[in-house]
Structures are given as structure tokens and as C-alpha cells.
Model the fold of this input.
Amino acid sequence: MQSRFNLFIFIAFILAVTISASVFFVDERERVILLKLGQIERADYEPGLHFKMPFVNQVRRFDGRILSLDATPARYLTGEKKNLIVDSFILWRISDVAQYFRSMGGDEENAKLRLSQIIKDGLRAEFGRRSIQEVVSGDRDQMVAGLMRSANETSAEFGIEIVNVRIKRIDLPQDVSASVFARMQAERERVAKDLRSRGAEEAEKIRSDADRQRTVILAEARRQAESLRGEGDATATDVYASAYGQNEEFYSLYRRLNAYQNIFQGDDLMVIEPKGDFFKRFGDLDTSSQ
Done:
């Protein structure tokens, strides 16, 4: 009885091991291939529960998510034969798990080394077609798009898709930085001098135009003043002539009285003999008083 029970336990254990070895689960974040004696038997498994031949088939699992690779900063030559130090990173994933297994042996480190070399070659080609100014201030997305097209053509042979390539930083070597800074400073100084000379020229034009307008305005004001003064003098002359014509005796007396008033002012004492035409009225007054 005991031996039968032990046999039943052993058979149950064998069945459990066999069943567990015949079943495997595929996660949605994984890419799975089924090997038979080291050769790929199937590589198109969907997420869920699947079966295999126990002790014959082997399941290899790979990360199906987007993976990142932080590339080592490297030097690249521009079209001007200037060195740039570029730091970048790569986003990639397995597109064909069977091809990936055959080409890389399923080793992620090998895949990273190969990807790093592909991106370096692509960056070297893209930077070699551009100047420093185009690299720094140009359309970097266009450069990355060209890089990804060529890189994906190469990486497709390894069952890998490059999702994105991003340039984190572009640095200049110390000697290049100094020369570029000197050129930028000289260019800024040239632009500043040009702007100052244009400003001085424009200021001189404005001052010349203002002086011209001032001269024209003063000349016109003088002309108008002389014209008005002449018209006033003419009017005054007409008024004086009209008044003198109406009563010559009174007008003569009025003029003399104004002249006497303007001359004999203040507290000064002046003793003179009232002779001459200017003092004619003094004599007339004395005669009339007698």
C-alpha cells in the first residue's frame, strides 16, 4: 500500500513537472522565440499562455520595450575640418526578434555596441556635410531625420529599429572654442561699428535737415516781420498824413509837445535860451501871454 502511494506521488510529480515544462506565458512587454535543439522554431508569439514540447523546446525572452543607449561622447569633424565633441543617446527596440537572435545571438550588449557604431558613422557623415554654424544654429531635426534613415537601413539587418536619436550637447574643443569666440567677437564688433556709423550718418542727416528747416523758418519769419513792419509803417504814415492834413497847426503843436516831454524829463535843471525852430512854440507862448 505504501509503495503504491509512493508511486502515485512520483507519477504526480512527473506529470506536474511535465506540464510546467510544457506551458509558458508571454508578457506583453516581451518578445519571445521558441528554440528546438538551438534552432528557431517559432518567433511570432502573442501575449498570453502557450505550449511547447517539454525538454525539447527552449524559450528565449527579450525585452520588447523601447530601450535607451547613452552613447559615449565622441569627436566629429565638420565640413570646415573643425572638431566637435558630441554627446548623444539612442532610443531603439527589437523589430524582428528572429533576425535579432540570429545576428546578435540574443546578446543585448552586442546589439548596443553595434548600434553605437552605426550612430557614430551616421553622425560623422552628417557633421561632415555641415559647417559649425549650421550644426549649432541650423535645423537639427532635419539632420537627425537623415541620420535615422541611413541608420535604420543598416540596423534592419540586425532586427533592430532605431526609434530616435537625440543630441544632448555639442561642445567645441578648447582651441576651437577660443578661435570661434574670437571670430564671434570680431563679427559683433564689426556689426556694432557698422550700426554706429549708420547711426552717426542718420544723425548728421537729421541735424542737417533740422538746420535747413531752422534757416528756412527764420528767413520766412524775418520776411513776414519785415512785411508786417512795412505795412505798419505805411499805415502809420497814412494815419499821420491824414491827421496832419486835417489840422496842421494842432498836429504841429502835438508833435512838439511830445518832443518836449521826451527831452525834458527827470529832476535835472537845464538853462538855455529858447531860440531856434525847436523852441519856436516857447516864443509863441511868451508872446501870447504878453
